[in-house]
Specification:
About 15% of the residues lie in helices and about 40% in strands. By secondary structure, it is of the alpha+beta class. It has a single domain (about 5-205), classed as Hypothetical Protein Pfu-838710-001 (Beta Barrel), CATH 2.40.320.10. It has an 8-stranded antiparallel β-barrel with strand order 1-5-4-3-2-6-8-9.
């Protein structure tokens, strides 16, 4: 089964700021955090596809629309993109082979989520367990790569391929405009998971040059390589209205 989404994400170094945690929990509908470990396959010089292993399931996520710049407020800007994803049950033997034959980066995650239903004319926040066909998740996560701490904020819409962009727009307006996050979220920190992993210096160092053989992975570094555009460089036609 194919699942479609439109997403915007930010990755920042260090622990989650207290003011962001307080902002996210008003009101508290997200419940207890989810704790999980994902292992991402390193695809040399590729940022259009993400492949991860979680609980014996191989999850593949591929870009189906190029990232576009969004100026949400003067303090919030980023890159939104559309993705399609699917899962494959590997079974224990195949999973073991996958572990042995590929370079993987382990990311430990603790995440809190809130859920928005956009099925009606009015966007309504609902409990996570409520079934929703068209909607969006707001997610705040702590990330641990080796001994390095990061945090991330993301919005990920779901539904039919032709509805996810509008669902994301409504989710951005609902969660990021009233009230806005207290921390600046810049386009330079807005990345997909594949792009973020490749921006970590020692992960990038494991990527072979064209025509060369892969090398063994090394410990992940502590600071990202800035990419994308600054808020001042994003064209005004990308502003959320």
């Amino acid at each position: 089964m194919l699942n479609y989404s439109s997403e915007i994400r930010w990755f920042l170094g260090g622990p989650i700021p207290t003011v962001m945690a307080e902002w996210f929990n008003l009101p508290i509908l997200g419940g207890e955090p989810e704790i999980q470990t994902d292992e991402y396959l390193l695809l040399p010089h590729c940022q259009m596809t993400g492949i991860k292993l979680r609980d014996g399931m191989l999850q593949v996520k591929s870009l189906c629309r190029e990232p576009s710049p969004l100026m949400i407020t003067d303090q919030i800007s980023g890159w939104a993109a559309s993705w399609v994803k699917w899962s494959i049950d590997l079974g224990s033997a195949a999973a073991n082979t996958f572990y042995q034959e590929n370079l993987l980066v382990r990311v430990q995650k603790t995440r809190w989520r809130r859920k928005l239903s956009v099925e009606a004319d009015q966007s309504v926040e609902v409990p996570l367990e409520m079934p929703v066909e068209y909607g969006c998740f707001l997610e705040l996560s702590t990330l641990q790569v080796q001994d390095v701490a990061w945090w991330s904020l993301s919005l990920e819409s779901f539904g039919r391929m032709q509805t996810t962009d509008e669902s994301l727009r409504r989710c951005i307006y609902h969660f990021l405009r009233k009230p806005p996050p207290p921390t600046r979220l810049l386009a330079a920190d807005s990345k997909s998971y594949p792009e973020w992993l490749m921006s970590l210096p020692s992960v990038a160092a494991t990527q072979p040059a064209a025509g060369s053989s892969p090398v063994s992975p090394s410990p992940v570094g502590s600071s990202p390589v800035a990419g994308g555009l600054s808020a001042a460089q994003i064209p005004r036609h990308g502003r959320i209205s």
